Structures are given as structure tokens and as C-alpha cells.
Amino acid sequence: MHSGHLLLEEPIRMASILEPSRPHFFPAMTKIIGTLGPKSRSVEEISGCLKAGMSVARFDFSWGDAEYHQQTLDNMRDAVKQTKKLCAVMLDTVGPELQVVNKSERSITLVEDGLVTLTPHKDQEASNELLPINFEGLAKAVTKGDTIFVGQYLFTGSETTSVWLEVSEVNGKDVVCLIKNSATLAGSLFTLHVSQVHIALPTLLDKDKEVIRTWGVQNKIDFLSLSYTRHAEDVRRAREYISKLGDLSQTHILAKIENVEGLNHFDEILKEADGIILSRGNLGIDLPPEKVFLFQKAALYKCNMAGKPAIITRVVDSMTDNLRPTRAEATDVANAVLDGTDAILLGAETLRGLYPIDTVRTVGRICFEAEKVFNQDLYFKKTVKYVGEPMTHLESIASSAVRAAIKVKASVIICFTSSGRAARLIAKYRPTMPVISVVIPRLKSNQLKWSFTGAFEARQSLIVRGLFPILADPRHPADSTNSGSSESVLKVALDYGKAAGVIKSHDRVVVCQKVGDSAVVKIIELED
């Protein structure tokens, strides 16, 4: 994969740009998260998405009930068996999301310079003069002149189906607003976003807790996407809650930054969370347009240096209805990769888009091309400088493995790991070649039964850029006490790499493993 590595600073033959991208087992080092829904819930569609490069399936509980999502997840598991491709499960909470309730589902046309009233009385009929909402405290939260955004922009990006409102007056529990642009609202639910105003609702609602306690526990979710994370305390409370739910104590929490409040507390949130999702739909409303790119670059840098996964949303909205992205969208995906994102999260594009499989494939191809011009040398130096000296033992081993792999032009790095931490540290330095993470299962007991760890750790690698996990056979632990079993596990990893087409005869491979109490980096050259 690294053989075609270029730098944007180097001259590129224009003719080479026209050469078709070669198909590859690893469509890209950057991971793709697909939101499963009406257009992507059959075994056939999910299988197509997995083959196209999707590695994490997102289940958005802001719509649909647990039974509906369970049917989709069962189909996903069948697709995983058919395709023999791992896929992690992400549960996305609702959080303090404000919504307009339109029970009749009739289209509502709002005309510029007119007035419309937002009311907490949900039993009333939605009309062009009255919009019922699901929040009692809006009148206390806003003041005259505040901006409110209503519509499906957060899902479609179309200005014709969204409206900007300006608070004109507060009348008891009702909020009277001036309509700033003409639009037609269609459907049963519209998201309502109040720009830069604190909403006095908990980040983890009671209905979120119920879904996690039932559906989440039943399905042993790998990731919890914590919507509207505003403070580090939000993450701590969520972790405290799931830590009491058996296997979910291993679930990784991804803090979803959606507004200025979360932005202001970003550093402390990053310390507590296992990863960050930059929800650019909401952020794009809360921030001035000219500041969005700046936050993206700063946030990705902080995540990269912390060695925690960073995920970008809202990249190819137009592919919800179209087979090709716009020029701006294609460039946006590439720039996110160059900025250092670990994964791209697709929402409406796969949830209810017309071309879910094509969308995953297209985004993967753009990521693949962008990775070829990613300046790894500069990134490596920047990361080493940021970490400083003295490095921890594990950090030193990880950076050395990447440096050695680049110097000897290794085709892959193979890392033996139990917790996944060593492999994630290697991936932190963004090697130009894939990192095959061989997860070694460990035996554990809860005083009632014995079980093996490893499945969680393997699936949780599926969100990290450049990491490709395989689960080792627990009957053959790879440790220093048994060189034969260690070699057998290495052979499995090499066979996996050969089958994937990333390892060939006479290639060099860098192996990182534990020997006794020490971690060792070794270079092997393959024979015929």
C-alpha cells in the first residue's frame, strides 16, 4: 500500500491522476461508519456495504424502536457471517435533542417575514402558524434576537426543507418567532436547534438509559455515541452507568461534540472519552461558517496527539439522492483524511439514501487516494515532538515499530495485543502500511463462569485508522513461554495478509510482540 505513497508537495504527473484506482482488499486505511435504516437494513444491502468498506454499523435511536433496530442488527450479523468481515456496533443516543412534532405529517409552508409560534403543547396540530415542540423550557432558555433553526437540514442539507427563525417575543411558555426564509417542512419530525443557547436537559435521558440497559446489554454494543456531550462530567456519568451493566463495562464511549458548549470544554471531554465524533451538522449551525474548518483541524490535531479516534460527520449529503458527490464534498472527504480523521460517519446517505453501497464505495475510494498523499514523515515528526521525552516504554516501542517499518519498506506491521492498546499506539503514528492487530484472547471469570476476552477489543479496532484486527485462537496463546504457539499465531497473521493481497514473497514485515516482561520489535523477510 505504501509503494504508491506520494506527497502533495512533490510534482505529480497529471496523466497519473487519470489512472484508475486499483481495487484492493483494504479499500482505505480510514474507516467508514454506516448508519443502518430503511434503505440499508436487508442482509443483501448490509453485505454490499461491508464489501464496499463499512466497518462499523451505527444504530440511531432518535427514530425507530428497539424491535426495528433489533431486526436490522440480526440482518447485520447474518451479513457478517456471509461476507466473513468483522463489523462493530455503535448505539447512538438521542440526548437533549429538540424536535418539532407534526403528528398529521402534512407539509407545512412557512413564508419569509411571517410569524410562527413554538409551543410545548404537543397535543396541538402543527401548522404554518404553530409548531408544537418536545421541550417545556424553551421560553426560559431564549431571549429576543436568538436564532433558532428548524427542519431537515441536519439530515438533507437542503435549504428548501429548513427554516431560520429569530425570536421576536416570549409569551408565557410559547416563543413567537420571525421567519427569516421561506421553506416547506415535510414529515413527522423536524430537528430544532437553538444557536449557542444552553438547553437544561440531561445528556443521557431516561429513555436513553432504558435503551442502553435493554437493547445495548442484549447486543453487547462496542461503542456508545453520547449525543450532545457538553462537559467531561457527561462522559463520567455515562461511564458510571454502563460500568454496572455487565459486559458493557468494556464499551467505548465516543463523545459527540455538537455545539459551542461542547467546543468550550473540548480538552477535558477528550481526556475522559475514548474517542470524539465531530457532529458537523449541528456545529455548522452553532459556529459561523468560516470557523467550522478551523475547529475541525484543531479538534483532529488534539485527538491525533492523544491517540484517540476522531470521527467526522456530514461529508456527502448530496449522495442521499445522487449517485455522485459534489466536487466540494469529494474535496471535503479528502481534506478530512489529510487533517487526520480516523473515520467518516455516514448518516442519511446510508440510512435512507438511494445509493448506500455506492456511497460507502465512493467515500472509501476518495479516502484511499487522499491517504497516498498524506505527509506521514511530517506527521511522525510532529507526533514524536508532541509526546516529548522521556517516552513511556509502550510509546517508545510503538514509534520504533513504525519508524522501522518505514525504513525497511515493510508491507505490513503485525502487532500481538490483548487489550488493543499497543496496536492503537502504533496506529497513532499513522504508518503508511496496514497494521494487522492480532488480538490474543485472555481467560477471565466472574466467579460464576469462565469466558474469553478479545472480541470487544478486536471490534473496537475497527474505528481506528490503519488497524485491521484478527482474533487469535485462544488455544494457542502467543507468549514467550511457547515459541511454537507464537510462531503458529504469526503464521495465521501472515496468511491473512497474503490472502488480503498486502503481503507477497520476499516482503519485509515488522512484528511487535511481548516476550516475557519486555516488548520486542523484529523485522522478518519472507521466503517464497
Distance between the termini: 20 Å
Report mean pLDDT, rounded to a whole number. 88
Number of helices: 19
- Percent range for β-strand residues: 15-25%
Strand segment tally: 24
Catalytic activity: pyruvate + ATP = phosphoenolpyruvate + ADP + H(+)
Cofactor: K(+)
Pathway: Carbohydrate degradation; glycolysis; pyruvate from D-glyceraldehyde 3-phosphate: step 5/5
GO molecular function: ATP binding; kinase activity; magnesium ion binding; potassium ion binding; pyruvate kinase activity
Topology:
Elements: H1 14-17, E1 31-35, H2 43-52, E2 54-60, H3 66-83, E3 88-92, E4 98-101, E5 108-110, E6 115-119, E7 130-132, H4 138-141, E8 147-151, H5 153-156, E9 162-171, E10 174-179, E11 183-185, E12 189-194, H6 206-219, E13 223-226, H7 232-242, E14 252-257, H8 260-264, H9 266-272, E15 275-278, H10 280-286, H11 289-306, E16 310-313, H12 327-339, E17 343-346, H13 348-351, H14 356-371, H15 376-387, H16 393-407, E18 412-417, H17 421-428, E19 435-439, E20 443-445, E21 450-452, H18 455-460, E22 467-471, H19 483-500, E23 508-515, E24 518-525
Helix pairs in contact: 2-3, 2-14, 7-9, 9-11, 12-14, 16-17
What does this structure look like?
- With 528 residues, the protein is of the alpha/beta class.
- The chain folds into three domains: 26-95 and 203-372, TIM Barrel (Alpha-Beta Barrel); 99-194, PK beta-barrel domain-like (M1 Pyruvate Kinase, Domain 3), CATH 2.40.33; 376-526, 3-Layer(aba) Sandwich (Pyruvate Kinase, Chain: A, domain 1), CATH 3.40.1380.20.
- The protein has an eight-stranded parallel barrel with strand order 1-2-3-13-14-15-16-17, surrounded by nine helices.
- Strand 13 (223-226), helix 7 (232-242) and strand 14 form a beta-alpha-beta unit.
- Helix 16 crosses helix 17.
- The longest helix is centred in the N-terminal third of the chain and has 18 residues, at 66-83.
- The two termini are 20 Å apart.
